[in-house]
Amino acid sequence: MKKTRNIKKPDIRIDMTPMVDVIMLLLTFFMLTATFRAAESEAIQVALPQSVYSDPDNKMRESNVMTILLTKEGNIYLDVDNYKIRETIFKDPLAIGLYRPSDTTGNSLKSITTVGDKEVKRPIVGMSKAAFEKTLDDLKKALRNVTNDAKAEFQVVVKGDRDTEYGVVEDLMNSLHESNNKIFSLVTMIKAEKKD
Predict the structure, then answer these.
(1) Within 13 A of 181's CA, how many CA atoms are on the CB side?
(2) φ, ψ (nearest 5 deg) of residue 25
(3) Where is 165: in which H helix or E strand?
């Protein structure tokens, strides 16, 4: 019988240091180059109406988007995606504008912390009708200053609750028209087609 010798095999060790370095570099790169959006306040609930048709050519842009929320109570919330513009107009990079057509005073609403029964995590700036229309103009001017483009325009996106009164929508459209925002998109939920 043959005698076998025990040959000790060397341990195989994989050095993970270079891989950790690469992962950290990638993580740092993506953190520095990513654009962060301020979270839309979940406290502002809007039940979108349903529609059958959608325009496939009308896609929402990644930047320079002005979002207007119409609640069933008739409140109009105004938000833009660029924090520099929000800071210029609302004096706070996270602020949301609020126009209540029923409120003629337009008092500052920075003390509001709840909408309905939910907590709002972003400051709210109240506006009168004149201040709302001026803000729409100022937002356009601020966008042009920030982007250094004299022809820059917001894509205006209106998300209206299906139970909003028609008069509130009409007032909003008139305000948009007076501030030369004549092109805007109404957001709806597409009805699913029933298959037979």
Answers:
(1) 28
(2) -65, -45
(3) none
Number of domains in the chain: 1
Flag whether the pTM goes above 0.70. Answer: no
Residues 6+ apart with CB under 8 A from 170: none
Give domain status of residue 89, yes or no. Answer: yes
CB 97 within 8 A of CB 122: no
Q: Is there a domain that residue 155 lies in?
A: yes
C-alpha closest to that of 83 among 100, 63, 98: 63
129-147 vs 166-178: helix crossing angle, rounded to 10 = 50
* Phi/psi of residue 94, nearest 5 degrees: -110, 0
Helix (H) or strand (E) holding 88: helix 83-90
**Domain range holding 124?**
64-190
The CA distance from 127 to 103, in Å, is 9
Give, for 29, the enclosing helix (H) or strand (E): helix 17-33
Residue 31 inside a domain? The answer is no
Residues 41 and 96 sit within 8 Å (Cβ to Cβ): yes
Q: What is the pLDDT of residues 57-104, one digit of tens each?
A: 667 777 788 888 888 888 888 888 888 888 888 888 888 888 877 665
